Amino acid sequence: MSTTNTSDTPTTVDTVDLTTPPPVEHTGRGVPIDLIDIGKQFQLKRRKTVDAVSDMTLSVQPGEFVALIGPSGCGKSTVLRMIASLEQPTTGTVTVDGSAPADMASSHRLGVAFQDNALLPWSTVRSNLNLPYKLAGRKVDTERVDSLIELVGLKGFENARPKQLSGGMRQRVSIARSIMLEPDVLLLDEPFGALDAVTRRRLNMELQRIWMADPVTTVLVTHDVDEALLLADRVVVMSPRPGRVRMIRDVPFERPRTSDVTRTPEFHELVDELTTELDNLSRGSAADD
Amino acid sequence: MTTIEQASIPLASDTAPAVAATSTSSRSGVRTALRVARKVLMGIVGVVWPVVFIYIVWALWIELQQLPPAVAPHPNDVIDYIRENPGSYVADALDTLRIVVGGVLLGALAGVALASLSWFSSFARAAISAPTLITQCLPVATLVPVIARVFGYNERTVVIVAALITFFPVLVFTSAGMRSTPAGTTDMFKVFGASRRRRFMLLAVPSSVPRLLVSLQLSVVVAVVGSMLAQWIMGANGLGYRLAVAQASFRTAEAWGASVVAILVGVLLYGVASSLARYARRRFD
After folding, report:
1. For a surface tag, which of A27, B14, B166, B188 has the fewest beta carbons within 10 Å of its beta carbon?
2. Highest CATH level, class, for B75-284
3. Best mutation site among B186, B191, B285 for testing chain A: the one with the most A CBs within 10 Å?
4. How many angstroms away from the CA of B276 is the closest CA of chain A?
5. Predicted-complex ipTM score
6. Is the torsion defined by CA of A75, A79, A84, A87 positive or negative?
7. In this structure, how many other beta carbons lie within 10 angstroms of the beta carbon of residue B96?
8. Do B198 and A134 touch (CB under 8 A)?
9. What's the pLDDT tens digit per position in B145-167?
10. Chain A residues with CB-CB distance to B188 below 8 A
């Protein structure tokens, strides 16, 4: 737990050592996540269930960024929702920092961003960003809100309402809101899934920058291999129905991973390997149907 | 001329082409004026057209059927009667307005309170829904004598009738509104560890506002009719009572005049409620 108390010293991009090889010990903040033999069944009709996730074991270390990828319907979002306390596993246990996810949620230690930006349409950008403080019953830290508005590039849009913003800007607000209270775990469920390819690429770069400013334990669910390799320390490939861990790849590239990194043969090799695996898995699941 | 043309070029992309000769500011001024004129015209047509339509159909009906004034008056007779006795109708109209607004507010309060209770407890929801539905299945004509027995043959009973008419749509729409939160927000509140009370105040209540106002839009009109019916049945006072008495004495111009005033009151209240609802849609969605 020695890694958690870096939070009281402000971490900036400068303090991240870019010269050392990718660390196995994560320098970031946050708490571990442990999924032990978890399974999740959904009831379809009476006496008919579907296994969304089955026998899945995975540990995320403090300060580690893990991406879950897999064909659609492989239960990756379900896994994330279990870590977020929104679903209960049917079998097995999910713990965050050794305790139940629901306890983490009620002590306001989780941050989350969804594909639907989940912004309050009747509130301005600023009051949407104040919301985590209000929900936690804390006094709004205006300086922190201001600095995050600056960090995600929304200065000048504080008083705009969500419908006046573009999809990309809404997701920036959503990302800023997710890290507002400096959560111990950050959960991202396809945060850029609804955006066009260009905006998505730009926001991936920005998310990398934002995350490097405060590298906290993060689980990202995505179906985009490039996004996973750009952002994560480890990429976990899940097989569909029931969702299981099919393959885990460490991502060895140093941060920041610029477009120079993404053009290297090593990067392409990993993209190809993961894409081929995803194609095979999708074909397998299509044959099931 | 060239400078004006140049000035308008950067803005030409989002406006209609081939208007380069006018400056952008006066062009947008003209466009705004046209938009406003169009809106005003639509408003006038919206108000005038139904009145003209009703007048023509009514007049044709009386004239073609050769109905005697004791059965149904000619629209001109009704207009004349109102013009000759405007004061009496103003007092009645204000009375009706006061009663209906009071009843609708009381009913809305009750509806919102019950919807809130239902939000917090599924037991409360089950306990509330059946009895409230029953109150709506009974015709006003049956309910009025019962309510009058409790609250007296006076204005209070009329207010209660208007409230009874209002609270049910308010309850149903507000309940639905409280549950139709924007996509993902309920999950977001849970993950951020919001208490139920905060989820109610900061999410359910604002989500319900647009539908609550739509329910008021529906209720006010029915509440006007319902309170007139209550006055008619109780035979105490008010627009409904006046209609009953005048009709019974074959003073049909006066009776139909009361109906016209009631329609005006209903339309006015509907107009106010729908502007509120329009504003809420802009503000909350």
Report:
1. B14
2. mainly alpha
3. B191
4. 15
5. 0.85
6. positive
7. 27
8. yes
9. 888 888 888 888 889 999 999 99
10. 112, 114, 118
